[in-house]
Amino acid sequence: MMDQPSATEILTAVREFIEKHAMPELTGRTAFHARVAANAIAIIVRELDQGDRANVEAQLRLEQLLQRKGSLLELNRELCRRLRTNELAIDDAGLSQHLTLTTLAKVAIDQPNYSGLLHSPHRRTD
Amino acid sequence: MSAPQPSFVPALNAAIQRAMVDVSAIANLHRLSGGASQETWSFDALTGDSIRPLVLRRAPGGALVPRSATAVSLATEARVIRLAEAARVPVPPAPYVLQDSDELGPGYIMGRIEGETIARKILRDPEYAAARPRLARQCGEILALVHGIGISQLSDLRVVTPKAQVAQYRGIYDGYDFPHPVFEAAFKWLEGRIPEPRDLTLVHGDFRNGNLMVGQDGVRAVLDWELTHIGDPAEDLGWICVNSWRFGETHKVVGGFGDVSELLSGYAGAGGAGMTAERVKFWEVFGTLKWGIMCMTMYQAFALGSDRSVERAAIGRRSSETEIDLVNLLYPKAATP
User: Fold this and answer.
1) Distance from C-alpha of B309 to C-alpha of B70, rounded to nearest angstrom
2) Which residue of B has its CA nearest to A96?
3) Using DSSP, how many helices (H) and how many strands (E) does chain A show?
């Protein structure tokens, strides 16, 4: 077990340094890249917070859908293979549910304010 | 603020005076933008009693750099713009194509039109409030004119059938060998609905916010013709509907400013035949998938070391934006978990 601070706390400190101290000193392309860097750190913080749960849930859905075990990468490759070979139809109810839930979880980590997520008919607001 | 004058100023001066006999000098040269495939410079040509606002669009550094496989040459771009102008498409006039003897590299001179290309301003600033409700219909009208241009003079343009477009991006995606099940489902959706390759027309190829110059009166010019080709005309109507180009105004499907019905009615009103919402949707799905794969491509530039910027790294995480858009398109009804 690592000591305090947690990875999330360290990353938050780095992001706050970029936003509050570095960015006001920067202009042009460098300022733009600093903004991108701060946003990238925010992605990692959300991934540390939500990623494990999203992956476990995706794994369980994939095992159920494909009726086999494997790593998440192996299961995703197998899912793609079955779609490509028409072993699984794109209108399969289990597939559409899996793709929807997986994508909602991914975008919530990558770009939680993206319009396509905020206005998705699949978004649960509870 | 005066930047040092670029070394090509004397060559440009000489070329302009050769091409436009009434011009005595050029002034106010400054860089507008630079990309991997072209650079653009704004300048004024001075005549006896007035100034003529112009833009130089040329290869970066005036070099004969290879453009991407899908881009046309700058000379071809100028030729298509001239045909578009003759067809009453709003474009910046292209009065002069650079010659080898100009020693400025490949490129052309175009008229400088005042207007706004930044989507967020067009979609939100009060200045464009009166123009916004007209834009979707106007885009339809403009595209009908583009698609009506005779292609007999354009036999050198690439012909890209719908099937070839889908296969091209399937090949790019496969090359990255990283599973995106949503992309796989989108390919299947598209492959089951490939339009017949009949009635192919001139296609702009990148008709979207950012390439439309807008004024208070509406669209003033269609820019950036470098991806023009012969293809399914519905491709242009679908591309401007991709959610990424709505810049947050998601409920306004066409560019964040209008509805598909307005786009279609403008298209039909200007003589465009046989366009349907279904045909547009095929290309909206394709365009969304294409943008998602382009995000993967930009990440590759980071992964392979040619661009180690944090921006190139982070853009890979924007593929998921297109995945939620694809899920919303392919599965429009909320699941019942």
Assistant:
1) 25
2) B331
3) 5, 0
Residues B29 and B176 in one domain: no
Low-confidence ranges of chain B (pLDDT < 50): 1
Which residues does B269 contact at the CB level (< 8 Å), separation at least 6? Answer: B137, B140, B141, B144
Question: Are residue B106 and residue B131 in the same domain, yes or no?
Answer: no
Whether chain A has a CB inside 8 Å of the CB on B294: the answer is: no
Residue of chain A minimizing CA distance to B318: A110
Higher confidence at residue B36 or residue A30?
A: A30
- Answer yes or no: do B169 and B27 share one domain: no
pLDDT value, residue B302: 92
Q: Do B314 and A79 touch (CB under 8 A)?
A: no
Give the chain A residue whose CA is nearest to the CA of B185. Answer: A90
Does a structural domain hold residue B299?
Answer: yes
CATH of the domain at B123: 3.90.1200.10
Asked if residue B98 belongs to a domain, the reply is yes
Whether B192 is in a domain gets the answer yes
In chain B, what residues touch A117 (CB-CB under 8 Å)? 321, 324
Q: Is residue B243 within 8 Å of residue A115, measured between CB atoms? A: yes
Q: Are residues B80 and B162 in the same domain?
A: no
C-alpha B14/C-alpha B58 separation (Å) is 16
Last residue of a domain, one of B85, B111, B137: B111
- Residues in B closer than 8 angstroms to A100, CB to CB, are 327, 331, 335
Domain hosting B161: range is 119-330
Domain boundary among the residues B111, B146, B162 is at B111
Task: Check residue A21 and report its DSSP letter.
Answer: I
Q: Which of B320, B326, B336 to mutate to test the interface with A (most CBs of A within 10 A)?
A: B320
Strand-pairing partners, residue B97, are B108
What per-residue confidence (pLDDT) applies to A60?
97
Q: Show which of residues 224-263 on chain B sit within 8 Å of chain A, judged by CB atoms.
A: 243, 246, 248-251
How many Å from the N-terminal Cα to the C-terminal Cα in chain B?
Answer: 61
ipTM over 0.90: yes
Helices B181-191 & A72-84 angle (0-180, nearest 10):
0
Domain count, chain B: 2
- Phi first, then psi, for residue B108 (nearest 5°) are -155, 165
Residue B3 has what pLDDT? 60
pLDDT at B1: 46
Of A33, A101, A116, which is closest to B325 when you measure between CB atoms?
A116
